[in-house]
Amino acid sequence: MIGSRPLVRILSISMMLIPLLLGTGMAQKTLNVSLSQDPYIIDPTANWLYDVPANMFVTLVGYDFETSTVSPAGADSWSVSDDGTTYTFHIREGWNWSDGKPVTAEDYAFAFERIVDPATAAPMAYRLYIIEGAQALNQGETTDMSTLGVKVIDSQTLEIKLVSPASWFLSSLGSIGHAIPKWTLETHGDDWTLPENVVVNGPYTLTQIEAEDLAVLEKNPSYFAADSVDIDTINLYVVKEESTALALFEDGDLDIVSVPATDLDRVKNDPMLSAEFYNGPKNIIYYYDFNVLQPPFDNVKVRQAFVAAVDKQSIVDFITKGGEVVAPTLTPPGSVGHVPASAGIGIPFDPEHAKALLAEAGYPGGEGLPPITLAFNSSETHSRIAQAVQQMWQQTLGASVELQPVEGRAYSQIAAEGAFNVWRMGWGMDYPDANNIHGELFTSEVGAPAIVRNAQYDSLVAEAAVEQDPARRLEMYTEAEKILVQDEAGVMPIYWSAENLLIKPYLKPVLSGSFNREFWKWTLEN
Fold it and tell me: In tens digits, what is the pLDDT along the chain, a chain of 526 residues?
């Protein structure tokens, strides 16, 4: 990782690329950006979607967060049956993979089959349970892939049948179901995504990768809209420390970077940096989960007390300081099913009420409370927020709180299984609908083993997923939010995020709220 290595290493890698670019005889446009996650897992059917695969493979449809509309991508048109359960997609013609083979409906069908195949161990397979047969296949109840409701009608026509109507389904396809080349997987196995083997149909192909260091993307001339892709080369450096990335930007080695909360005041007050500063909304919810499998958080009054003891406004005013908005509920503004603060849902900051609730739970003044472990995946901002919450809980409730920073990709899994009493989480919207949060994170069927279970909540979320009336859906999600964050207090929403960036003046990124950066839409001025 770059954060632990000298800057000369980054520059030496970049310098090695220059002769390759100059050898083309063309003026190349190169973008240098940081990447907070290890880019090594690239298969979009076997992993959560990240920046690297998002720019290499194409979904059936795209989603424009600025206009809140679904747009053509791999499919240039589609239709929906009158009962809302059958979607028919026409795959665009005259478009090839990077090895020259045409992109077909079979390539998309194979992707859906691979995601639901339990052998793939795709972490997001549950997102396809709305498709006929997907859940039974993924849970091993059958191995007959012909039962999956994804059918190839002809080489350019794909049909998807759902178990029930789902108004969120089409927009959800903007982040799952990328076509992948079956023949490449069959030839190379797990090595199919290595630069020397990978075949892509997206705007960029992978030409170099060093695990935990660097990924290099080059423009793919076979992409159907290659003429509109402005940037030729993208160097994505793995930089896990925000402060390190900021230093690289200031030294001219990165073209865009997130601004750590600790540097916001300095950036805003700096004449040069303030001119390069951007602030805007970001479709991410920052929250804490409670482990309900162990005392004391198996007691709902304890959970409610700990929520009521947190001054969220002070966190966004004095720690993050980037335009974040206190979140009484989960679904961010701008998404279908967002519950506004005016609805009065959630547990407000009230120290005296928090003390009373804790006393009712049998822990007056914190007496008898076992030590609390608060975990967070290592980052400067997460640490500072955890320290503030620790102080609030200790001063208001008399709790003994130990902070536990955790390194590595296994954090979410071990936390969800109950390794800690409380743990930090965040969720970026894959598609702007409350189903993306409630239907995919917190129901008994898909939620973390250590979080709260509630049958009424499960029922409301299931009903809202198929309801076609927007007003009725909002009513259902309002009640579901009340159950989860207020009545059960199984989750503590803290804030809806903001985007705070420094951007070189020659870079024109499209910043629309998409969880993954769509580099093919960005431009660089010469």
Answer: 444 343 434 444 444 444 444 444 457 999 999 987 666 789 999 988 889 999 999 999 998 777 778 999 999 999 999 999 999 999 999 999 999 999 999 999 999 999 999 999 998 898 899 999 999 999 999 999 999 999 999 999 999 999 999 989 998 999 999 999 999 999 999 999 999 999 999 999 999 999 888 999 999 999 999 999 999 999 999 998 889 999 999 999 999 999 988 899 999 999 999 999 999 888 899 999 999 999 999 999 999 999 999 999 999 999 999 999 999 999 999 888 999 999 999 999 999 999 999 999 999 999 999 999 999 998 888 999 999 999 999 999 999 999 999 987 789 889 999 999 999 999 988 888 999 999 989 999 888 899 999 999 999 999 999 898 889 999 999 999 999 999 999 999 999 999 999 999 999 999 876 678 999 999 999 7
Class of domain 1-45+183-255+504-526: alpha beta
- Identify the helix (H) or strand (E) that includes residue 35: strand 30-35
Fold of 281-499: Dipeptide-binding Protein; domain 3 (3.10.105)
DSSP helix/strand/coil, 384: helix
Q: Is 408 helix (H, G, I), strand (E, B) or coil?
A: coil
Q: Which residues pair with 406 in a beta bridge?
A: 377
Residues with Cβ within 8 Å of 286's Cβ and at least 6 positions away in sequence, in order, are 324, 327, 385, 424, 426, 493, 494, 495, 496, 497
